[in-house]
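Hi W.,

Here's what went into the run:
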Amino acid sequence: MAGAAPGGGASRSEVYRGSGPRLLLPAWIFIGVFLLLPVILMAVYSFLTKEFRGGVIWEFTFAAYDQFFLNRGLFGDEPPTIEWTYLGIFWRSIWQAGLATFFCLLIGFPTAWYVATRPVSTRSVWLFLITIPYWVNLLIRTVSMKFLLRDTGPLNEFLMWTGVIAEPLSLINTNFAVQVGLFYSYLPFMVLPIYAAVERYDFALSEAAADLYCDSWTTLRLVILPAVKPGIVAGCILVFVPSLGAFLAPDLLGGAKTFMIGSLIEEQFKGAAGNWPFGAAAAMILLTVVMGVLLIHARAQMREDG
Amino acid sequence: MDQKNIAVDVDHVVKRYGSVTALHGVTLDIREGEFFTLLGPSGCGKTTLLRCIAGFEDVSEGMIRLHGDDITPLPAHKRPVNTVFQQYALFPHMTVLDNVAFGLARRGWSARDAEGRARQVLKLVQLTDFAKRKPGQLSGGQQQRVALARALAPEPQVLLLDEPLSALDLKLRQAVRVELKQIQRETGIAFVFVTHDQEEALTMSDRIAVMSNGHVQQIGTPREIYEAPVNRFVADFIGETNLLEVDVQTVLGGRATVALPGGTVIDVPAADGAATGPGHLSVRPERITPTDGPGSVTATVDSHVYLGTDIQLHAKLDDGTPLVVRMQSSGADIPAQGTRLALDVEAGAARLLAD
Amino acid sequence: MKTLLTTSALALTLATAAAAEGELKIYHWFEYIPQELLDKFAEEYDVTVTMDTFDSNEALLATLKAGKLGEYDVAVPGDYMVKIMADEGMLDTFTPDEMPNFDNIEDQWVDVEFDPGRKSTIPYQWGSTSFSVNTEAYDGPLDSLSLIFEPPEELKGKINVLDTSGETLTLASLYAGIPQCTSDREQLKALNALVQGAKPAWASFGSDVAKDVLVSGDAAAGMIWSGFSAKARAEGAPIEYVFPKEGMIVWMDNVALLKDAPNRDNALKFMNFLLEPENAAAVTNYAQYTAGVEGVAEFLEPEVANSPESNPPADAKGVFVQACPEEVQVLYDAIWTNLKK
Ligand SMILES: Nc1ncnc2c1ncn2[C@@H]1O[C@H](COP(=O)(O)OP(=O)(O)OP(=O)(O)O)[C@@H](O)[C@H]1O
Ligand SMILES: [Mg+2]
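Here's what came out:
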């Protein structure tokens, strides 16, 4: 890390500049076809006219964005005001995803730390144990979480058996249950990148910090967190983004009482609404928000690195 | 010795790692303003001792005092000592200036004062122009000086250095030695310096503790260590020496009469604890000289190595004991292989060891 | 040796040829046809059958629209969806003489409004959509949709409603006495107010879980399809299916011959196969709805034949869900989105 050979960075980046583009061509083609093309398609669709019960008519219009941002009343004849319906759904999803990210970080960081500080021989066992549940399909895992949390589920029965509670706790179909589901679904996405960062962390830095009068918490704050920050950021992105679009947990554990971004978009394609341009527009707006956040972060990171 | 002048007092420190005992009851004093070196082969416990003083390891037994205060129970961050790490351990995400100011800020200095002091220390290590760089953008030598500056800035009572020069190439290492010694003198801080390079130890130190296998073998000035090693380990480890098997006839008041292989009896200085009977006499190669007279021993030349100002001869005594002789190259002829040489052992510079 | 090799090679070719004899691709509802029946068809006609599933009529439409038309041979749309798909030109037609069992279709299901004269579809199963109540949790009278839309204290917070706007809003309309596909402002506002007011008492929205929540006890009352309710009872849920005095939804699922079916012949064979009373009865025994085919009675298991869900009282009222025109549908969509925002 600090001891990296000086000049190594320079010569390496020269190598990249030289033959890089040619070697990276397959990757660029792949990105172009499988990532960019769908996004472009979606952007185009969002400006097309909807066809009743799904499909599009190739006529340019802002109708989808109009519907998203402007409220013209139930019958469409009132003067436009700001439409809070969809912004509210977005805000709720962002809040939910943010909360899930926070809890994943809260538990994921110590977990990753613990695993990364085990002897090399046992680390892979711990990692394996952590990832075991994730060999099972997400739907099945979410359903089993539903079994666990329901009024007659093992959790409530255990608590009643121990006498902690007399009546079952209403856990299912609550935001709490959704949080538990998201947390359980995406925890490894937090643990693994942080684990990778901690594993690379030079523990001599912690000793150096202690040597320079830092107690454990100050060391964590001033030295460890900045050093493993790339892992934390990666973990947060990996948890936040899928949480934002998640619909299994909100549907199965939250009772699908409210739309999340994911289910709102899904409804446009699969539900009675069948409004594809609106679904595409909602997805584009979501993408713009996420890209915006990532860009701001990348900018800040670049400025920091000089 | 005056208690007050003692910076660090290591008192019968034992350190065990499971079944491995890294330190077997080490006792030593480090005086204020002293350049003190821990010298010994790899694995002898130098780093362990240093880490015990810094507080990164708990001692299993014994006590460590700093200016008379027991610091054994204190965690590392509460000990007023600083360390220069072997791999420097600079904070990669901070600038050089922030690295150097780091300890000051922790000790409650205001940002402004800390920066002022950091700049002052950077000047001392001649890195003023690099204040705003990140450690990754510095050369190895520059990083080493940042590490030194960072440890010096909070004005520790003792500075611990674990082989700080080992990552540098020879030329740079020699230059930094001089600088380091100078800085030590200017700051007046006691340095505890770990190395396994005896030349480094001899040229820089006020005193040296020679360690092996978790034991301190000898503590003394470079000259004492070199000229008056107490036992075979020290004699052998420091510089080059000939260990001759001798028959000790009398030992009295720090001197002894010994019979060399071949029978010549000479009177030599003796280490404490030397006893009559079979013993070992340490004689440095440059203290054995070819002579025209009968000499104290005779040997047959095997080979030679030309070293510029010196020539080193490899010879064998009549009983087969190998012998190294160093002679000045100017003027003298190089004795051919097979030549029988009469050699004088300089009795005053030889030393009977305590084994 | 050589002969042996040739013979086995020949056998191999024959086997592959046999496997490739024919294919059939079905797009069907989840949990709606017994695997044994598919196997039986595959064996009898030497056809490789593959099946994908969907969970709502709208999902079926969306998938076919998104480019899957031409990949499947038959699909199973509900009544109003048949009409929509026909209007979209997604259905192929056949003549009765292409299907020997055509005459087995019960008379009342031949000239249906969504496919007059059965030119593209045959009946699959029909049933009703209403709701079931856990009689251990609630022991009051079971006769009104008010149990869902203005529930008593015992059921509040323990109700599951179907997560499709068509069914839930139609039942709400029945309760409020509002005609389907209305564009009357006051009526729509009343409908909106009704579901908004009821929502706090609802625990969850879910269609595929409708049975599960009743069996597990997560819900004490839940909108459900008749056969699903019978299955829930069979799995031990202490529930009773309600025939509300305000009316309920009646629906019929139909096997439709899709436009551009890659295996049109096999599709017709399959539809003919399903009109065989024994096979129609097998579906009914499995799904617990009612077949629209004559002569199934003797093949039905008694508990299915006698299930209360399939034997509504004589005065029970049922309506088909109507496909609304676009201008009206957007209003219903808005009410639905508003409900779940
Ligand atoms: N954490 C540990 N666990 C077990 N044994 C250890 C540990 N640290 C050191 N040792 C052992 O203690 C002994 C002294 O080690 P130490 O690191 O102090 O040697 P050193 O003199 O610094 O050697 P070097 O010159 O190679 O750095 C060695 O035998 C080493 O194997
Ligand atoms: Mg060491």
